[in-house]
Hints:
The complex is a heterotrimer of chains A (about 300), B (about 650) and C (about 90).
Chain A: E1 5-10, H1 20-32, E2 35-39, H2 61-71, E3 76-79, H3 82-97, H4 99-106, E4 118-121, H5 122-130, H6 132-138, E5 147-150, H7 160-163, H8 173-180, E6 184-186, H9 199-202, H10 204-220, E7 225-228, H11 231-242, E8 254-256, H12 257-264, H13 276-285
Parallel strand pairs in A: 1-2, 1-3, 3-4, 5-6, 5-7, 7-8
Chain B: E1 4-9, H1 21-29, E2 34-40, H2 46-58, E3 63-68, H3 71-84, E4 92-96, H4 98-102, H5 108-128, E5 135-138, E6 142-146, H6 150-161, E7 165-169, E8 184-185, E9 190-191, H7 192-205, E10 209-212, E11 215-223, E12 226-233, H8 248-252, E13 256-258, E14 267-269, E15 271-272, E16 284-285, H9 300-307, E17 320-326, E18 328-331, E19 335-337, E20 354-356, H10 357-364, E21 385-392, H11 408-422, E22 427-432, H12 442-451, E23 455-459, E24 462-468, E25 471-478, E26 483-489, E27 491-496, E28 498-500, H13 504-511, E29 538-540, H14 550-568, E30 572-575, E31 580-582, E32 602-605, E33 610-613, H15 623-627, E34 633-635, H16 640-651
Parallel strand pairs in B: 1-2, 1-3, 3-4, 6-7, 6-18, 7-10, 18-29, 20-27, 21-22, 21-27, 22-23
Antiparallel strand pairs in B: 5-30, 8-9, 11-12, 12-17, 13-14, 15-16, 19-28, 24-25, 25-26, 31-34, 32-33
Helix pairs in contact in B: 1-5, 2-3, 5-16, 6-7, 6-14, 10-11, 11-12
Chain C: H1 5-14, H2 33-37, H3 44-58, H4 74-84
Amino acid sequence: MEEMRSYLYFPGCSLRTVAKDFDTSAKASARALDLELREMQGWLCCGAVFTNLTENLITQAGPSRILGRAQAEGNTLVTLCAGCYNVLRRSSQRAELNRINQDQINAFNEERYYGGVTVLHLLEILRDKIGFEEIAKAVKAPLQGLPVGAYYGCLLLRPFREMRLDDPHRPSIIEKLLMSLGATAIDYPSRTECCGSYLGVGSSEIAKPLSSGIVQSARSCGAKLLAVSCPLCKYNLEVCQNLSTSADTDFVPVVYFTQLLGLALGLQPEQLELNSQQLHAIRSCARTALGKVSQ
Amino acid sequence: MKRVGVFVCHCGLNIAGTVDIKQVVEQASKHPDVAYAVDHRYLCSEPGQTLIKDAIRQHNLHAVVVAACSPAMHEVTFRNLIQTAGLNRHQCEIANIREQCSWVHDDNTTATSKAHIAVHQSVEKVKLDEPLDPITVPVTRRVLVIGGGIAGIRAALDVANSGYQVYLVEKTGSIGGRMAQLSETFPTLDCSICILGPLMAEVYRNPNIKLLRLSHVEEVNGYVGNFKVRVRQEPQYVDVTKCNSCGECTKVCPAEVPNEFDSGLTWRKAIYIPFAQAVPPAYVLDAKSCLGLLPRACGECEKACNKLGMSCINLDAAPEAHELEVGAIISATGYELYDAARLSEYGFGIYPNVMTSLEFERMLSASGPTSGLIRRPSDGHVPREVVFIQCAGQREPETALPYCSKICCMYTARHAMMFHHKVPDGQAYVFYMDIRAGGKGYEEFVKRCQEEKGLLYLRGRVAKIYEEGDKLVVKGVDTLSGKILEIRADLVVLALGMVPSQGSRQLASILKTSLDANGFFAEAHPKLRPLESPTSGIFLAGAGQAPKDIPETVAQASGAASKALNLVSHTTLEREPTVAKVTDQFCSGCGICIPSCPYEALSLNNSTKTIEVTEAVCEGCGTCVASCPSGALSLRNMTDSQLVSMITAAVSPK
Amino acid sequence: MDLLPHQVLRYLQLGLEEVFDSKSPWLCATCFSCETECPRGIDVSKVCEALRNIELRKDSRELKIDEFSPQIPQQGLVSAFRKLTSY
């Protein structure tokens, strides 16, 4: 990588607080790839979900304000949190489709946004702008066969017609990244199923079995770690395990994919805010490739 | 002065509901050339036609204007009618006051004034119409059938047995098509090749049928009754007349590729016989999978054949172009299955134990990869739990094919039944959305299968398939009970949709005919003309036109043959005389018109030094008329004077 | 789920008011698996959100958080309130 590429970046609320490790590890590993994630000016909460009620235009005021402000600085915006990615990508596409609605939404903002900002996920930058082969060349501390299950959840991939990141039934973008880092990407059936999402907040009796099922599926296929791109998925997948009656050795730590990326690029665990449980799993499980390998 | 009669049709309420018929009649009567004007509820009916015929006599009419539906509907009807009344058929014009008027306007005033104009224009045109006689052309009394499956075979036999010559062009090395690949046929469970084989042999022995294997149609010129077709035949490395299918060549061939006849489940050599009952009964050398012919890399097959004194193989053979002249063409190009790899939820191509219905069919067949035994592709074990998924990639307008392929409910029932017969302790699960069993005996057959022990019919779709150990976990639902199911299956069979054969698009373009939205050959009218293409002289048979079963295919093939025989059973054909005409006094022989004609109908007469029109070839498109700088060319009954009076009628103030 | 997704749609097609008594629309996590799988591209999550909102516009609901933890990402709280209450 010759020159430093700079991308306008939207962190989102959770990455400032409970998911600070995601933000830190992303910026650090990006720097190791000669990428700058430059926070956009004046960002605010995206609203967390994209409403299904198309008449609820007020919910688009926030995203339009964000995209309008981003547009002043550039026409590409990179996100990390699957929720923010889903909201902003769809909002930007909708803004281009319906001018009349957008006129009403813009009435609430100083910024006049009518589309034009391409919202990308960091994974797309890694796949399309850098390439997994280049990343493999930049790896200094390969993950030595560490069995990781990539967990996609819902919002990265669906609704497919609007997101178009990867095949919604059998995606492979995170697995390809993991393989370029020297890890063993474990294929397990539940990697695109829902963790329960916001039901984990008020209806944990619904969410916990969903998340447990995912962890169980990954674990039984040989995964020792789960790699995610969403703070809420991470929360649900961790919380359902704390209440499991099996021993601690069955616990499958959940990390952000950027933490694994940073490790493989030679960064220190402190720079990536990895905790002891996560580190322990990584250190003890590398050098062994168990379970089903993803194609 | 021509006495014109104007007849205005109500067409029930179709026209009368929007257009003020009485006003139109009244306005028409005011025209100086209109001797008689009247209305009727349904002019195309018997009483309506009688009204016109009587009026011609009673009012001494010389020409007729019928203000009604589109000329595409009934121009021929009314022209035939006035002929029986003693007038030349070209003294009849149709004013379209339905499709172009009452059906596209809501406002009665607008529609009525438009109707006035339409009638006025037609009166102006018919005033200047010349009486014309049809152009008679000779008919080439031979038929071309494209495609050697059951449809092509049936059509060829019907035409040949009527005493006419047929060319049957087949792109593979043998006729038989999909039906040869089937194990049994529903609902009778007849052995497919056993009922097909005799028909194939009949084709081979019929002196009226010339079979061209390994051939495809490259170019078609001409028109109905007089087609000129160029067929390209691949090099016949194996001489069909000499080969006795001894198979010595195959034994020594070193090159192996997947066998298309077995849907890729077995291997074949580069020199091979398509299947045991192949017609012609001869081997085929597939140059693409051969190690190399130019330069010669191997040549073992030729050596082996020569050693026996047979000399059937000529590795220096070249492709041949056949120039055929036929009067009618029947397209019977058949179908393929939808590409299952595009349905990522089922895992075809990823899990070896997910098969297509055609692969399973080959496995069921006694001549197939396992001699009729049911085995799992992954490990060769007998599968005990088999899931059949109907509507795979079909009836899904958003994600795959929007239509239903008609035959899958029936063949899946047969598959499940046959599986159960061969694996009596096995369990078959059939996931279905609806059961479509419309043919004779079909409902009874499916009910028999549904009631059979060991077959469980589940109403719902499959959401996902994944591997766990050596089993395939199939996640589906039974909406009748409301239960979500997970079946740990040994084998999954996908009933995929039928899509038109590869090459259909190119063939349609060569035949100058059209395809429908799904790529199947389009029919001239979906209800009344289901086996004619919109292009005159080209007929359709089989699944190439739409998904269908064998009895429907055979019926359609015989119907197409009958249509072809309609044409070739006459020695001549009549063509429309509304063609181009040269007025010699104005023609300087400049020749600008000649390259403008898409049909090559114009030529320079070297003695008169003026242009001549080959009327039989002219389609009356008018391109040459537009190109002529001196106005020497005109279109009969669509002259510039006619057009000018029609335009004047449209724009002049009332 | 007391009513399966296709049953919710069938009840709506038949105009059966009992659909409002069903718990199923409140169990929707807006995961969009429905729309991805449906051969007709029907977005059941949209239908569920509409059903919830018809109720919420008559009578706003409370969201009970059984185990509040500072670890719950804001994303989760905001999504839950927006999808399941009148906020």
